[in-house]
């Protein structure tokens, strides 16, 4: 049955090849490489519940029943286009030039309810519960029971089943994706099809309440989501090739735009979302870590996996840094499968760029993106899908952002780490000695009408460089507390998460806390010639540069539980713990370590009214000033703890 179907497909693609060769002789904008080396098929693959998913397929021209290829898939909510078998992409057809030249059967699929696929789309489709079955299947006990219903794993399974029956495959399948497609790669792992051999979740959306795109520890990421949902959640009545935005908001200065917009609920006003976005409404209405968010956390389902996994992320990823590191950790803790981690000096998906040798004022001395694709990604899929070459990568291959060098470890975080604690102390000092004083504190007034900006300058959209930006603009503000060490007498290598313990009091009943860890360059540091650089590099002075290494926010009401928020007792010292995402950074000899603490990060994060009320329904008048005290004494030793490599 499978061979008959394959022969039918080959006849079809041979006809398409003749047409494409004739077309390729006419100059055009389409990629000649793709047309000469691949035959395109558009198919609607039927899922187990009858829903058809639109799938574009690129078969190598020399594929045959005696020359079979593995499949490399991407499942996406961002369009599998161009649509139509005569419409070829201008590049590709694989996710990279290297993989395209290596040749696979490339498959891209619109996920359920997106673009040209049928069905109803769900944000971060909840995974079905897969329990161990005692009912024999094919003579074996203890196999995973087929769950009732559908999820992204069942849709992937059904798609793979169709591909194996209808294409000249070698019966091995790989799956990869960046960002939201990274989630679909992760979501295919539970109950995976036996032919799925290699999966690479890259910057995968993983837990949107705790640390990915929507919220970080309960705090809503306003700037990104306001722009993203405008087009992503546009109207759709059945399959469409494109989406129209819900509204037009010409933003020139994001800080002023959102400050003028006022309370969060005003985003649903007539000129903006106007209650038309299902996902936006879900994000705002579900303001605790309730069943909505918990069911969309893929981590508990990443257990007893069989495919090999390569998890990839970037240290400068403003969207899904959390997802990459914690997807890897979840697989490590719950599965015995082959699992590798790669973390580079990349923004969101920058490892797919042709060149990533520099980011802002940082120069890495190498094309880190090409290194990754040549030495890691291409070899990963070649080995697992073609039995070609070797894949002897270390367990964790990570880039040290302080010395611009790759490091290898047998696990992540590294086992060699030793706890290092720095205490916030009087006179803006950061010391290794626990304070002995009593009733010592620093304080500031947090004013929602004048929130601390997340970046220095005027930007219409998110400034990606905020994750490495000079923090001198913030340290000069009276509503930002600064603590700093003396110049380091030796290199200090930090690897893994950073934990902050704050003892804070507020005159209100709620507060946000943003903790920033900063590498302060010596005053003698020479600046490269940025005279020909475009903004924001012009005028950058590296002498005394306060380089952001890592930062994180927590909405204070969630300090004890993300499920059950609690008000602050006004003016009472209260412990607040904040875990910052992982780092791999060497603080060089002569540099200083700095910590900044503040209560707004606008408009990256929405403003907290600083009252224990429903922020999604709060009025403009509900946003109040609050006096924040940060204690640093013997009874309340506010501190940060890191893992230092020996």
TrEMBL record:
GO MF annotation terms: dipeptidyl-peptidase activity
Gene3D superfamilies with a match to the protein in the record: alpha-amino acid ester hydrolase ( Helical cap domain), alpha/beta hydrolase, Galactose-binding domain-like
Signal sequence coordinates: 1-24
Claim: Glycoprotein is one of the keywords in the record: no
Keyword Hydrolase: yes
Keywords (A to Z) from UniProt: Hydrolase, Signal
InterPro entries reported in the protein's UniProt record: AB_hydrolase_fold, CocE/Ser_esterase, Galactose-bd-like_sf, Xaa-Pro-like_dom, Xaa-Pro_dipept_C, Xaa-Pro_dipeptidyl-ppase/CocE
Record-linked Pfam families: Peptidase_S15, PepX_C
Region (Disordered): 128-153
Boundaries of every Xaa-Pro dipeptidyl-peptidase C-terminal domain copy: 378-641
PANTHER family: COCE_NOND FAMILY, PUTATIVE (AFU_ORTHOLOGUE AFUA_7G00600)-RELATED, PEPTIDASE S9 PROLYL OLIGOPEPTIDASE
Identification of the protein by name: CocE/NonD family hydrolase
Organism from which the protein derives: Spirosoma rhododendri
